[in-house]
Amino acid sequence: MRVLIVGGGIVGLSTAWALVRAGHEPLLLEQGPLPHEGAASYDQHRLIRLPYAEELGYCAMVVDALKAWERLWDDLGETHYAEVGSLALSTAENDWADRSRLTLDRLGLDYQTLDAKDLEARCPFLQLPPGAWGLFNETGGLLFAARIVEALVRYLRHRGVTLREDCRVVSVDPAAGSLALEDGGRESAEAIIVTAGAWTAKLFPELARRAVPHRQVLAYMEAPEAHAEAWAAAPALVDLASDLGLYAAPPVGGTELKFAAEAHRRPGDPDKLDPLSDSEAVELAARFRPLLRDFDDYKVLRGQVCPYALAPDNRFVTERNGNVTVIGGCSGHMFKFGALLGEGLAMTATGERSYEDFRLWAEGRRESLPET
Fold first, then answer.
1. Cβ–Cβ < 8 Å for 57, 364
2. DSSP state of 305
3. Inter-CA distances, 266 with 40, 154, 219, 278, Å
4. Residue 186: its H or E element
5. 140 pairs with which residues across the strands?
6. Using one digit for the tens of pLDDT, what is the confidence trace for 125-177?
7. Can you spell out the DSSP letters for 109-154?
């Protein structure tokens, strides 16, 4: 079956992988180069972690996602993942970490609760507020995002999949099952899958309020020498302060220490994102001051801007019209599910799964996809 894929980020590339291994004929169209370094999927690392507050469906989906990544590693013949675990801090009853603990209990998933002494031993660079405790999961860690994307591009080309770079799609016609291209050309197929990330609303204006493009800032850091060894052995840090959405990726496997905060994002046109100002990375890093010892000894190496699409409820946005399946509203947490979503989209587009089952699962409203 011939299937068109619009967008060459992690989900588009993973969908092409799932289609070709099932014997289908994917054609992927990407508006920029492949890999596209200006897209959200191209970064040193992305976190994959079990804690998901009260979102039972997404927490369960992480378990399946890790299995899907294993299938991808087997096909690629290389692994781009470090299982360093994850750590969330709880500072109040019913906060994000506390709600995550209850969800892990419901699913029967293992975790450890760390008191102040345990936290000091595991992360001596942390400066903890009174009464804080930690939710630690051995399962989870870091996906080396850019390496994964690069490996997928190599794999797909080796398998003979057509990857068309610098090929911008300007409109989708579900009735005709075709795409109009910026260069005046058209492409048609039995099925179309749109994985356009922050550019989704440009193709489907009716989704503009459900998949809002945003500009996210990241900061790459150098830890002080006194804490460098501890950071290199640290887990992924998630939700360090619930009101700011702070998280950090440790410097593992040749990557750098990365700080991020949900508070440092704002709506923006992905084709015209404001350039990074001189102060933004410094301001983002400063959010971590109350949580880190010797904060003044940390060095900001540089900032980075990523284009995200955010849904108001942080769920993935899916649509189906004729033979066109759309997924968007990645809300900053789609990469961890990339391989699994690719498999689900491939089966949905080719009729092996019902769209309604896929929609409910992708929205986190089901713990798993029904068996075929």
1. yes
2. E
3. 15, 34, 16, 17
4. strand 186-188
5. 49
6. 999 988 999 999 999 999 999 999 999 999 999 999 999 999 999 999 999 99
7. ---EEE-HHHHHHH-TTB-PPTT-EEEEESSEEEE-HHHHHHHHHH
Share of the chain above pLDDT 90, in %: 90
Length of the chain: 372
Type of residue found at 368: S
Q: Which residue type, as a one-letter code, is found at position 272?
A: K
Pick the CATH number of 2-51+145-210+313-362 from 3.50.50.60, 3.40.50.300, 3.40.50.11210, 3.40.630.30: 3.50.50.60
pTM of the model: 0.96
HSE at residue 47, side-chain half, CA atoms within 13 A, is 26
pLDDT digits (tens, 9 = 90+) for 42-88: 999 999 999 999 999 999 999 999 999 999 999 999 999 999 999 99
Euclidean distance between CA atoms 181 and 197, whole angstroms = 18
Sign of the CA dihedral running 335, 341, 346, 349: negative
